[in-house]
Design brief:
126 residues, alpha/beta, 5 helices, 39% helix, 18% strand
């Protein structure tokens, strides 16, 4: 069954997450449920706060939103985040939320732009 509204949460609000957040915020069929980044002053965090969207410095807060989130997008590039999200979904029995990782985001942004988009990650660990 097709969705009329996608409820999305994003982990990573820096150089990779911010352009993605702008596209998500511009889409009338997307509701942004929350944004997480270790840096509360990251550009995407400020953007989300300005739009009244929940922000947090813990990606697990987004996982705790449970099945109210359709897609949880991780653009951190940090394996510990990827594993933590997977574990949180398993522990809570959340079989609804789809976790999308940076490689899929890179593909989608590249398709939208008509050329390969290179993602940027800093060395910050979670």
């Amino acid at each position: 069954m097709a969705n009329d509204l996608f409820r999305i949460a994003v982990v990573g609000a820096g150089e990779t997450g911010t352009p993605l957040l702008r596209k998500l915020l511009a889409a009338p069929f997307v509701e942004l449920a929350g944004v997480a980044d270790l840096d509360p002053d990251a550009p995407g965090m400020r953007l989300a706060q300005h739009r009244g969207i929940m922000t947090t410095t813990s990606f697990l807060d987004l996982a705790a939103l449970g099945e109210t989130v359709d897609v949880l997008i991780d653009v951190t590039g940090v394996p510990a985040v990827r594993e933590g999200l997977r574990k949180a979904m398993q522990e809570t029995g959340n079989h609804h939320t789809v976790i999308v990782h940076e490689i899929v985001v890179q593909l989608m942004l590249s398709l939208l732009n008509g050329e390969l988009v290179r993602l940027k990650h800093d060395a910050q660990d979670y």
